[in-house]
Amino acid sequence: MKAVIVFHRRGRSSWLAACLLAASAFLLSACGGGSDLPAATAPQALSATAALGKKIFFDTSLSASGALACGSCHVPSRAHSGDDGLAVPLGGVDQITPGFRNAPSLRYLNLTPAFFFDSEGTPTGGFDRDGRADTFAAQSRRPLLAAHEMANGDAATFAAKLQRASYVADFTAIYGAGIFDDSDAALDRATQAVQVYEQEDSGFHPYSSKFDDFLRGSQPLGEQELRGYALYNNPLKGNCAGCHPSSVVAGALPLFTDFTYDNLGVPRNAEIPANADASYYDLGLCGPDRTDLVATHQDLCGAFKVPTLRNIALTAPYFHNGRFATLKEALQFYVQRDTNPEKWYPSTAAGVQKFDDLPAEYQRNVNTTEVPYNRKLGDQPALSDAEIDDLIAFLNTLTDADLSPAD
Amino acid sequence: MPGLRCQHVALLLALATFSAGAEEQVMAPEAFLARAFHDEKPAEEVIWLDAPLQSRLRPILRHAYPRARLSYWRSGRRSAWVLDEIGKEFPITAGFVVQAGRIERANLLVYRESRGGEIRFPSFLKQFAGQRLDNGDQLSPDVDGVSGATLSVDAMRRMARAALALAAAADAKL
Amino acid sequence: MKQNNFPKTPRFSLTAISLAAALFAAPAHAAPDADALAQKLDALAAQVQAMQKEIAELKAQNEALAAQQEAGAKPTTAGTSTAASAASGHAGAATAAASDEKQLSIYGYGEIAYNHYDHDSSRTQADLSRAVFGFGYRFNDSTHFLSEFEFEHAVTSSDDSGEAEVEQFYVDHSFNHYISAKAGLFLIPSGLINTSHEPTYYYGVLRNQVETAIIPSTWREGGVGLHGSSDLGLSWDLGLTTGMKLANWDFTGTDGRESPFGAIHQELQFASASDLSQYLSADYNGVAGLRLGASVFTGEVDQSQPGVPGNPRATLWEGHARYLRGPLDLAALYAHGSISDTAALNLANAGQPTPIPEDFYGWYLQAAYKVWQHGTYSASPFVRFERYNTGASFASQPAGLGTSPYALESVQTIGMNFYLDPNVVLKIDYQNFDVLDDDRLDLGIGLTF
Q: Which residues of chain B neighbour A23 with C-beta distances below 8 Å?
């Protein structure tokens, strides 16, 4: 009898429990609301250090020629890349000394990790086309001193120029009146200030392109742009996303680089004066600028950093050696390198000299396995000319809103 | 933000469901005995699980019954047995009424396993009525299984066989 | 207590009678053979004394035995005999005795598989697919805890492909035999295998494709649930749990093509929980040997993640039937999954190899027959026919950008489970795939305890 009474009471509490749970489920299922991708970054007032860095960035008086600044080769209106159309920029004391590599865009570098080998041994990250600088600051030190760039030669020379700059009071206000007692420290602080500027100023990473808006759902892509985008992603067609990822990952807008390195076998560029010496080769991770890997990583000789494709329409000429003046040409090279090598490499009596910008022993390092480089002589290229035009239409959507479209 | 708030309310409600308490007794042993003996009061008897009896139980249960003696209830030639057996993790308690070498009824009394509770359903339990042991101490006829309750069904089978073996031993002493 | 008092009464009366007899006998027959009588009385008294001693010894022995088995019956053997303690006293003691005992139980299961592929022997492999150990703990008769810890593929480290996972970890509390509640990480009641996933429960070395690709067994979520059953044979389970996260969809990988829900379920690993899911399942066992059931699991999957437009919802429903009649074991299952509102997200990943499907489904029919049994040995050959498609349709896209449905896969499996014991099984089967180049011979061993 007792058991029965108890049972009834428990029965009632059970049904109450059931109702409560059902109510919870109803309430929770009614909860909702999504969140958006990060908006385009709006320009905002710079900190004192960043403002100082900006002044240094654009100050031509800090160069030996008095005519060159960081901003000369990294022009904001060209997505902080060169606007001279040259394969390699000019600099030096006389301002006509040619450099060795094409000036890259400085945009969207703020999330670049320092150089490392990942768990599978893939070289990843780092600044400069060979990744030898770990930070913006380390990277910016080189052009301030290099003979073919701002040509200061040493820290003392640079510091002397900085001491005469109109904004030197800003510098000492931040780093102390005694900062010039140590030229190395002064150079170091100057590059720090440039780094803060490059990281802080939203102009270096505005995420304001049409494609960003497409991902945000606020602007559609046109038919041709979408076709090009699909070709870009398609692992059997462009396969561009293989190295230049285009997906939103963990709520972050894509950077269009996986920070790795690749050896594409880009043809030698005769427009680079250094190439007049037939024994000179620019081998990227293996030097001549970078020297720490050549002894141990011969398989990486000839590999250069995979750059972001944001603003790619504005950063001609293309590749580390500026070999291609137009995007169309660069893309045609990708898909026709192996199907029509004669279009890209010199021919001699022995035949087409493929991968002519690499010494014979490093030619095997060239990527010939991944789409679209996995073709043979006479195969159909992975993309037709019309498809390349579609792809270019898509790449044009990666141009930041503050920049005029490519001409 | 409103999402967050309504989730908190819901979680509190969900937690509140755990404030009540009870047991998972399927059928009280009194109720089992009352049904087994139609409210006539059975005598409580004890059977000693001596060596011969244990050696018969061991192949049935796949272990000896871990008692030296066992109480059961008797009224004439009908006897009632309450046994325990682990299905997978925890013991299942079941009651069996045996008359003249056949199971008259089987009831699930306490179920403690996390799954396989379907063996409490009458559709399963009523299959035991009329079962007896064959020469190999197997159930005859056998019961059909329950999908997803293999081990619980197996435990019930073993207990039914043990109850029949125990009843035979107890009846032999009358 | 009764037992302690009971034996005393007769023993006392026996002594009293003897004494009375001795006292009253003497004056009544104060006669010549008084000496003989006295002698007899002395002898009787000695006998009584001896009997008293014997009875006392027997009683002590009994108590000792009882105490011994009482102790032996306790937890180490996982409480094999709560009923015995019930039976030793009154009937009502059964549950009381059980609820006094705190009980830890340890269990586990595992399987090793060998797969030999017809068309590519380089894929032939042997794998310790799963080693799972679990602990259960009964706090009392109505509240218990269950857990399972799984190691997949033998070696688990940052450089290896094995995984270490918590498969179940929850508390279950029963209010009465009609209704219980659970909270924690538990298995979603979907299909036949997910909640009964030990290798001894299913036919074939590998779990069937439908309950792998469509229902992502072993599928668990964190949350709360209510479950119970009615005497008519209806059991039910409903709850509120974490759900899937569409932002985890990998458009470049193959996971989503192999198992759409398997690719985005979260397994309570920092699970995004701004969208919770609901499930409901019901099974009817009202006819001996027959089980008929169905379930649905549904919830939004954007989890408020940036870059996931709209309000996509994932839903999985399935229906299943199983019929166990003597040696015959028949099973059938149909499962259908869908993810809504994926057009914009697929377009944002146009051209990628693995877009999100809108619909995917599969079904199978299976028949097994226990042809032989001897002692704990038994042999059950089986056949299974499956069809499934992990991308039966895709949300429509602008012209030229859509994805064609995948080919409908069809798998025929024939094999046998050979049980050394109901809990130890040797398996062999051959599987023929119509689309995939996966035709293979499988050998396996599975066990559970």
A: 10, 13
